[in-house]
Prior knowledge:
The structure is a homodimer.
Chain A: H1 4-15, E1 20-23, H2 26-33, E2 52-56, E3 61-66, H3 70-75, E4 80-84, H4 94-107, E5 111-115, H5 122-130, E6 133-137, H6 139-146, H7 151-174, H8 181-196, E7 202-208, H9 210-214, E8 230-239, E9 242-243, E10 247-251, H10 257-276, H11 283-296, E11 306-308, E12 315-319, E13 332-335, E14 338-341, E15 345-348, E16 351-356, E17 359-362
Parallel strand pairs in A: 1-5, 3-4, 5-6
Antiparallel strand pairs in A: 1-2, 2-3, 7-8, 8-9, 8-10, 11-12, 11-13, 13-16, 14-15, 16-17
Amino acid sequence: VTNDRARRLGAALAAANLGWAVLTDYDAVAHATDLDVPIDIGPLFQVGGPDVTVLDADGATTLVVPDIRRAAAQRCRADEVVVYETSHDGASPEALLRTVTETLDRVGVRGRVGVQPASLPYALGCWLAEHGAEPVGVDDVLRAVRLVKDAEELDRLRRCAELTSAAQRRALTATRPGVTELAAFAEIALEWEIPFAGRTAVTGDFLSGVERTAGVLGRPTDRMMCPGDPVIVDLAPRVGNYWGDSANTLFLGEPDAAFRRMHTAVRDALHRGIEAIRPGWTAGQADELIRAEVRAAGYDYPHHTGHSVGTASHEFPCIRPGAEAVLVEDMVLLLEPGAYRPESGGVRLEWMFHLTADGLVPLSSFDHVLSGRNT
Amino acid sequence: VTNDRARRLGAALAAANLGWAVLTDYDAVAHATDLDVPIDIGPLFQVGGPDVTVLDADGATTLVVPDIRRAAAQRCRADEVVVYETSHDGASPEALLRTVTETLDRVGVRGRVGVQPASLPYALGCWLAEHGAEPVGVDDVLRAVRLVKDAEELDRLRRCAELTSAAQRRALTATRPGVTELAAFAEIALEWEIPFAGRTAVTGDFLSGVERTAGVLGRPTDRMMCPGDPVIVDLAPRVGNYWGDSANTLFLGEPDAAFRRMHTAVRDALHRGIEAIRPGWTAGQADELIRAEVRAAGYDYPHHTGHSVGTASHEFPCIRPGAEAVLVEDMVLLLEPGAYRPESGGVRLEWMFHLTADGLVPLSSFDHVLSGRNT
């Protein structure tokens, strides 16, 4: 076993009195094996089931994939790769289920086995239960390992933050009157697609105009941007197996004093958080500090203040009111306070951070300037 | 029950002696309820499980979704929508599993229940088995309903074909020396994204140059296109709940006689198929006719000759050697013969068709011209 991350996962299984885990969520498989699978064409492209990783308590991994992912599987860190033939006739999970159960049988999975109850195929769970295994939910065990990032993960996430920042800088010029949100977004996305050499999954929001920005959420549409528009550019691309995230608020033209005040309030709240938050705080305390700043200025936001990120775009912990999770060194966190007013539109400002013993170190490198060009 | 498609599914359940089905594949949920869910941000965005449709033998549908999909669910045709609260802490399927099991209990699911064994969460299957239900694989039953398209589905698929054709016409000018594959692809994708008013999932291939086109498969990369490149543009966007598909082969500059011969061979084979194929043929016969034409010209292709399409990009039947499925009226089919040579590159030409009593009626409206501008 040469895969340190899988070894740490295996140790966590052992500590939870689990001899094995069967991983079926794409982000858990990516975290454990580094299998690079595009997710932007849907969960069930041509074949009827998830890629499956069998992990033992020593961190040894066996990955089961369809033939169309053979090359990606051979490049990843799984200790063993088992390939089954792709179905060309739409969903027909027989080959998947047969190949995984043969693998489970051959490697000798039994006893207490960690499983992901929302994505473990029913047929696999039944096979385990009928073959001397006791399926036990493992999501909490995985979460505890994943909330701290290792050096390699920090490098990956730093790259995600850099590419996302380059895209935010591009947004300053791509976002202009007379262009649709979608066309601007396509231009912006090339900032990470070309370095990654491929199209990627991307979530977040692209909102122009008072009504859409005041509405908080929404992906880019055919709306043509106009002079006087506020624009929220929230970019969360998946570059390789890890996700970046970021938000900036632009203004097409000169914002009035009311909008500037709103922008300043959000920026000040974000920076108050950056200065104060340290390992040992709870996620709820971090939320409270930043949210209180925004509220003291007379605004509010109907969403969390931030979240962790990794092979999923939103990971534990969420920085939200009352969250009891303790922030620890080597988490990678997003902070994203906002302010929304039906008559003025919305502001959201988000950066990505590495939490160190000394506090939050920004991984994002773009500026939260309200207008002007800083490319 | 006002949903004709769900009513036909319900009748098929009854004919298979099933009182209920629990649908968990995204394409089955889309087909039964018309729930419009973006799939291009991955299978497990922020929540730990699939959207679930409970269908009875009368065609009544109950849809269970997280709160972030409430609006989409309320726009769809499910007779009842049940919403659970989104988790903000990464995968935590408890709310999904609790809400679905409460729903199964309330509507009285028991007896023989059709399930999709690769995507039915293990926890749900266990609940069913412990509460008087017998889970039975239902994929074959769904497949038999889905292989024939109703009038509304034909309209949807016609629109997919039209938008895909517009994108293929745009490819004639977007595909040029000095532009990366990714930048050309971004420009082309706007042809369906702007009418759809959103980014979509898209699969297929974008291959430039001799080496990449000879390699058959691959999504757009950072490769800069050059004079003398063959370019395979295979576009399969998901516009709403249905997929389009198409392929054209372009050439940047003047192709030599060898490449023209290859292109002509593929085009002639495709048109031979268009003229001959009728309802009643097996998929294998259709494959054989077209493949034999390509082989007679001295070429071959290492992939299927075509496939059906609907709420999944590849549906049953696949048109491949030996396939015994019989082609019937009101299927929507792709035919996509090709020719690949390491020294010259590759050609693939694909159109979308409605199979009528009189034969294949093209839904695609772009030309398979090897070079020149036809926009």
